[in-house]
């Protein structure tokens, strides 16, 4: 038996790529404590949304006139059966908060996927083909950008009729041009790079160049943009549901719960406070994580951060020696 036949010690074996990548991601994220906290909260929200039917202690639509406007459990008149109290119809606020996360996240993710797919496809075509195709697509983008986004969304939803599916389609229809502009600008700058010109000289077709050479380089900026747009969609969903043009009863969302409790806010603060805090905390967490992601995926920003870190280390060393 040769020396190479002996099994390696566990500490010397290379870590599988699928395990090393998440570990490296978390190690890098841990350096920014605010971004790590935001990412952890987002994971918690996603898990709560997935397992809401199991975690919710009550049916979110179950009403009880005898239990209406019960304060949270830690207050003087609170009940242990309702941790965050009940609303004006006696529905458990905690259960509705958990189920509301499902609707809000579903709308946000669906709109980002639909708008992102359409916007990226049009941006790739406009940036790579150029000429009349680029002119037509960008003039359409200019027309859409000229309309106020929320006003256009309200108009379309009011014309079609309020529902969750209508809201998703209308929000995607009102936000695709953001991705188109970003992708077109990056593709235009990449077309003049040597590796794209070399691929064209070697006979690669437009589809292969877009798929294998340009699209992978778009992933970091698109990922950052999609995460930031998710917060805008989350706020738009809350606004539409608050106005009665979004999620419809008996379904629930955070924006709808705030709308239901606004008339009772002077005598019962809890039906609107906890959904509002959930929206604010989710938006803040997404922004913190997106800020870290933008710096991490941008080589220039990483160099600046590394330079600042080395400067702080040098100052610390000089002060200790000094």
Distance from first to last alpha carbon: 59 Å
Kindly give the count of domains: 1
Give the helix tally. 13
CATH class: Mainly Alpha
The biggest beta sheet is recorded as: none
Based on Cα principal axes, name the global outline. Answer: flat
**CATH level 4 superfamily:** MetI-like
Low-confidence stretches: 1-20
CATH topology: MetI-like fold
H/E series: HHHHHHHHHHHHH
Structural class: mainly alpha
Relative helix content: over 70%
The total of beta strands comes to 0
User: Roughly what fraction of the amino acids lie in strands?
Assistant: under 5%
Radius of gyration: 25 Å
CATH architecture grouping: Orthogonal Bundle
The overall pLDDT average reads 82
Give short descriptive properties of this protein:
mainly alpha; 13 helices; MetI-like; peptide transport; BP-dependent_transpt_permease; ABC transporter permease; protein transport
Describe this entry's structure for a reader.
This protein has 322 residues and is mainly alpha-helical. It has a single domain, classed as MetI-like fold. Helix content is 72%, strand content 0%. It contains 13 helices and no strands. The protein is flat. It starts with 16 loop residues before the first helix and ends with a helix. Residues 1-20 have low confidence and may be disordered. InterPro entries: BP-dependent_transpt_permease, MetI-like, MetI-like_sf, OppC_N. This is ABC transporter permease. One of its GO terms (cellular component) is plasma membrane. Keywords: Cell membrane, Membrane, Peptide transport, Protein transport, Transmembrane, Transmembrane helix, Transport.
């Amino acid at each position: 038996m040769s020396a190479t036949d002996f099994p390696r010690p566990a500490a010397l074996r290379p870590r599988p790529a699928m395990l090393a990548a998440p570990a490296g991601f978390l190690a890098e994220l841990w350096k920014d404590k605010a971004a790590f906290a935001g990412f952890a909260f987002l994971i918690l929200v996603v898990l709560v949304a997935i397992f809401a039917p199991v975690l919710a202690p009550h049916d979110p639509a179950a009403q009880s006139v005898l239990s209406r406007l019960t304060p949270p459990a830690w207050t003087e008149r609170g009940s242990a059966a309702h941790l965050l109290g009940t609303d004006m119809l006696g529905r458990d606020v905690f259960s509705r908060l958990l189920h509301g996360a499902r609707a809000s996240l579903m709308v946000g993710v669906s709109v980002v996927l639909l708008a992102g797919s359409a916007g990226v496809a049009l941006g790739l075509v406009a940036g790579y083909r150029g000429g009349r195709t680029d002119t037509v697509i960008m003039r359409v983008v200019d027309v859409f950008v000229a309309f106020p986004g929320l006003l256009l969304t309200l108009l379309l939803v009011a014309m079609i009729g309020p529902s969750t599916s209508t809201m998703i389609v209308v929000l995607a229809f009102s936000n695709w041009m953001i991705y188109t502009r970003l992708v077109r600008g990056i593709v235009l700058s990449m077309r003049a790079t040597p590796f794209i010109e070399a691929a064209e000289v070697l006979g690669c077709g437009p589809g292969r160049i877009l798929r294998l050479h340009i699209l992978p380089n778009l992933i970091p900026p698109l990922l950052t943009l999609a995460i930031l747009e998710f917060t805008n969609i989350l706020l738009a969903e809350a606004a539409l549901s608050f106005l009665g043009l979004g999620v419809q009863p008996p379904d629930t969302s955070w924006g709808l719960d705030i709308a239901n409790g606004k008339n009772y806010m002077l005598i019962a603060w809890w039906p609107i406070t906890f959904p509002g805090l959930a929206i604010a905390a989710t938006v803040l967490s997404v922004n913190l994580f997106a800020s870290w992601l933008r710096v991490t995926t941008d080589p220039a920003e990483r160099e600046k951060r590394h330079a600042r870190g080395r400067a702080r280390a040098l100052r610390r060393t000089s002060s200790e020696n000094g």
